[in-house]
UniProtKB/TrEMBL annotation:
Domain of life (superkingdom): Eukaryota
Root EC class: transferase
EC numbers on record: 2.8.2.-
InterPro entries the record matches: P-loop_NTPase (IPR027417), Sulfotransferase_dom (IPR000863)
Lineage, highest ranks first: Eukaryota, Metazoa, Chordata, Craniata, Vertebrata
Source organism per UniProt: Oreocharis arfaki
Family per record: Belongs to the sulfotransferase 1 family.
A GO MF label: sulfotransferase activity
UniProt keyword terms in alphabetical order: Transferase
Protein name: Sulfotransferase
Sulfotransferase domain boundaries: 1-155
A Pfam family reported for this protein in Swiss-Prot or TrEMBL: Sulfotransfer_1
Length: 169
């Protein structure tokens, strides 16, 4: 099992844009309204903090590899090598480069209509890190920090997220 996790503030930001891009989901007129629902567990697919907490129970099992979105963005080549090694797939340097190129956000976004149909336009928006800083107020950031500390910080996955590095202003 490959478990990809992402900092909660960017998850909320991405989810906000996803919700507003999907006709089948309720749209939010404001970020503030969405943030309130996100923090009070009123989202489809549940609470991200609970998701992280539950997966933390299994993070040490040998058949589970956890990697963060931020790790992949920082060093895509190393991420691909580690994933291939975990899955037991021997790759040449040429094959690694091909996987890196084809799995880059830009490449996946470019091919998203072929691979995901109309959903591709909603799934592949920016692909960056720390976009949350464009939406969160200082108060919202502090509320998210507090929720992270209460629910996830002490878990293995919480520590893997490097919260201070990616999530604090």
């Amino acid at each position: 099992i490959l478990l990809l996790i992402r900092n909660p503030k960017d998850v909320a930001t991405s989810f906000y844009h996803f919700y507003n891009g999907m006709a089948s989901l309720p749209s939010y007129e404001t970020w503030d309204g969405f943030f309130t629902d996100f923090m009070t567990k009123k989202m489809a697919w549940g609470c991200y903090f609970e998701f992280l907490f539950e997966w933390s129970k299994y993070a040490d099992e040998e058949n589970i590899m956890t990697i963060t979105y931020e790790e992949l963005k920082e060093n895509h080549v190393l991420g691909v090598k580690n994933i291939a090694a975990f899955l037991g797939i021997p790759l040449t340097e040429e094959e690694i480069q091909l996987v890196v190129e084809r799995s880059s956000f830009q490449s996946m976004k470019k091919n998203s209509e072929k691979t995901h149909g109309v959903l591709g336009r909603v799934l592949f928006r920016k692909g960056g890190i720390s976009d949350w800083k464009n939406l969160f107020s200082e108060d919202q950031s502090k509320k998210m920090d507090k929720a992270f500390e209460e629910h996830v910080a002490g878990t293995k996955l919480g520590k893997k997220l490097k919260y201070d590095l990616y999530c604090k202003a």
